[in-house]
Write a structure and sequence with these properties.
Largest sheet: 3 strands, parallel
Radius of gyration: 14 Å
Strand order of the largest sheet: 1-2-3
Number of domains: 1
Shape: globular
Length: about 100
């Protein structure tokens, strides 16, 4: 894969929690930017789960608040279209986020 960073990605809580359990959060440095919605952050960053300081060390983390009014239509489209694979959903979520977040460009 080389030394280049992979395109930006959107993380969910399960990924963060389980990588933290095996001391593997550093693997997330492969992404140019890792976008974490506030709801995911709230679920993952808790006692006995993921330490906020461990995420801060990665330096590629971007926290975001996306209004529910924008999330709901996206989720409906993503999950009703011919059963997307998890990686396809992550890519689509990242594309949707970039379209909704001009300050992230």
């Amino acid at each position: 894969m080389g030394a280049r960073a992979v395109n930006p990605a959107v993380a969910d809580a399960g990924l963060l929690i389980h990588l933290a359990e095996v001391d593997g959060l550093a693997l997330l440095r492969i992404f140019a930017a890792l976008h974490i919605p506030d709801a995911v952050w709230s679920e993952a960053v808790r006692p006995n789960r993921v330490r906020e300081g461990d995420l801060a060390k990665l330096r590629n983390i971007r926290r975001h608040t996306i209004p529910q009014v924008q999330v709901t239509p996206f989720a409906r489209r993503a999950w009703t279209s011919s059963s997307p694979r998890p990686w396809q959903s992550m890519v689509a979520a990242g594309e949707q986020h970039w379209a909704l977040c001009p300050r992230c460009v």
